[in-house]
Write the C-alpha cells for this entry.
Amino acid sequence: MTTLRMAAVAEPFDRDLEGDFERIVKIVEAARADGVQLLALPEACLGGYLADLDGAAEQPPALRIDGPEIARLVAIAGDMVVCAGYCEADGDRRYNSVVCVGGGRVLGNHRKVHQPLREDASYASGAGFAAFDTPIGRIGMLICYDKAFPESARALALDGAQIIVCVSAWPGSRTGAASDLADDRWTRRFDLFDRARALENQVVWLSANQAGTFGSLRFVCSAKIVDPGGDVLATTGVLPGIAVADIDVPVALETARRHMGHLRDRRPEAYRS
C-alpha cells in the first residue's frame, strides 16, 4: 500500500504579491517537512481576490502562465505538486485561474467557468474542464462556484481524474450573516458541495479556501480533504490552517467503486441534454 500525503490550505492572501509569496514559501516548507506530496492553496492566493463583485474595486495583478511569477511558484514547489489560484493574463483578457505545478514545470491550468454575481465584470469565463496527469496521479481542478454545478466535477471524473482539487475564495453570507461562521448557511453549503461532489463521483477531493477578510468579504476557511465515500478525513473548520491526510488513492477509489460504481452505472441514454 502506497499512501499519498496531501494538504489543503485555509489562509489569507491579498494584493501584496511579495507578501503572498513569502506566505507560500512558509506553507510549502512546513508541508515539505511534514512529508506532503500534494498541496492545494486557495483561489487568488497570488495577488488576492476581488474586494467586491461590481468590477469597480482595484483588480488583482494579471500574471502570464509563462511569466516570472509562475516560474517562481514552480521553483518554490520543487518536487511537490502544488495547486495555486491567480489572475491569468492572456492578451487583453483576464481569467480567474488555478495552476498546478511540480517537478520543475507547469502540469495543468484551469480557468474558472462559472461566475457568481458580477464576477464577470472582472474576468472572462473559461470554456471547459479537463483532467491531466501528474507524478502523483491524474488530477482535475475547479475554482469555487464551479463546484456548485454537478457537471463540472462529473466532467473531470469522466476524464479520469482520481483527485479533484477545488480552490476557493468562498465567503460567508452577506445577508443574515451568522456571527459564528460555523453557523453560517454559506459555510454549510460550502461543506455540502465538497462532500456531495466527492461522493457522487467517488473521487478524492481537496478543498482549499481563503481565510480572514478582504474588502467586504469574510471567508469561511473550511479547507478539507474528503474521501471517495464523502467522509471528511481532515478539516480546518472555520479557522485558518492546513488540513492534512494520508490516503492510498487507487485503493480508496477501487474500494468505493467495487460494488456501486457511480461512473460505471451511469445511463447516459436516459439523460436529456
The domain at 4-266 is CATH 3.60.110.10 (Nitrilase/N-carbamoyl-D-aminoacid amidohydrolase). The longest helix spans residues 17-33.
